[in-house]
C-alpha cells in the first residue's frame, strides 16, 4: 500500500529535514508515525499525500508515485489535517457537500449520515463553522476525510481538541474503517492513541526513524521484568517489587491476601524517550 525507501527532503539546501526514511505499510494496517513537533512527521505525510514534491528516494502509494495519475489518486485517499481545513463562513453540511462534489457520485458518502456517526450537534448543522468549537470542527474534518470511502486514510492528530468521550468515539470509527479494509496512516504524538490503535509504530526524531515494531514488542524489549504486588499481612497493607522469574516460585514472602499484581512495564511514551532521548512536545 505504501512503500518508502531512503526518503530525503530539504526545505533549504543547506539543511536536510528527512534523512533517508525507509518503511512500508501493508493493506488494512493501522500504522503509527510518532514523534515530537518538528521531527518530520507532517513533512512525511505531505510528501505521501502529494502536497510536497522535490524529495529524493522512492515513494510509492498503490504502486505509483503520489504525483502521478493525481485524479485517480485523490479519489482513493482521505486526509484529516492537524488544523481543520474548512470554509469558516459555510456550515458543516455546506462544507461537506462542497467537498463531496470533487468525487464521482458512486464514491460519495451521505454527509448527514457521517455527521450523525460522528455525533455532531444537530443544532449547529446550518450554523457557520466560525461558531464551532475545536472539537466540532474536528468532527466535520473527519467526515470530510471519510467522504469518498478512502482506501488509504491519512490522519494527523485525529483526537486533537476532543474530550475523552469524543476521543473514544474517533478511535472506534478508525477501527471500524480498518475492519472495512481501509489502511490508516496515523501521524501523532499521542501515545495512547498509538498504543490502542496501531498494529505497528515508527518512532521518528530529528528526521530519522529510531525504531519500528508493534507497540507490544517495543515495550517488551525494554521491560524491566518487575512486578509490583500489593497485599495485606497482619492487618497491614503492604507492597513489594519482585523480578518476574521469582513469581514462578509462588510468593516468597508471608501474606494473608494478595490484592493486586501489576507488571511495571514501560509505557509507549517511556520507550519513545529511551529510543529518541526526546519528550513528545
Sequence-ordered SSE layout with sheet pairings:
Blueprint: E1 2-9, E2 18-25, E3 30-34, H1 41-48, E4 56-61, H2 70-76, E5 77-80, H3 92-100, H4 111-117, H5 134-146, E6 152-156, H6 164-179, E7 183-188, H7 191-197, E8 200-205, E9 208-213, H8 215-221, E10 226-233, E11 236-243, E12 257-263, H9 268-276
Parallel strand pairs: 3-7, 3-8, 5-6, 6-7
Antiparallel strand pairs: 1-2, 1-4, 8-9, 10-11, 10-12
Helix pairs in contact: 3-5
Protein name: ABC transporter ATP-binding protein
Organism: Blautia pseudococcoides
GO molecular function: ATP binding; ATP hydrolysis activity
Our count of domains comes out at 2
CATH structural class of the largest domain: Alpha Beta
CATH architecture assignment name of the largest domain = 3-Layer(aba) Sandwich
Question: DSSP strand (E) fraction?
Answer: 25-35%
Major sheet size, sense and barrel closure:
6 strands, mixed
Cα gyration radius (Å): 22 Å
Q: Tell how many strands the DSSP assignment holds.
A: 12
Main-sheet strand order equals 5-6-7-3-8-9
CATH overall fold name of the largest domain: Rossmann fold
Apparent shape: globular
Helix content: 25-40%
Helix-strand sequence: EEEHEHEHHHEHEHEEHEEEH
Distance between the termini: 30 Å
Total helices: the number is 9
Tell me the structural class: alpha/beta
Give the overall average pLDDT: 86
Unreliable spans: none
Looking at CATH, the homologous superfamily of the largest domain is P-loop containing nucleotide triphosphate hydrolases
GO molecular function, one term: ATP hydrolysis activity
Domain ABC transporter: 2-231
Protein name: ABC transporter ATP-binding protein
Keywords: ATP-binding, Nucleotide-binding, Transport
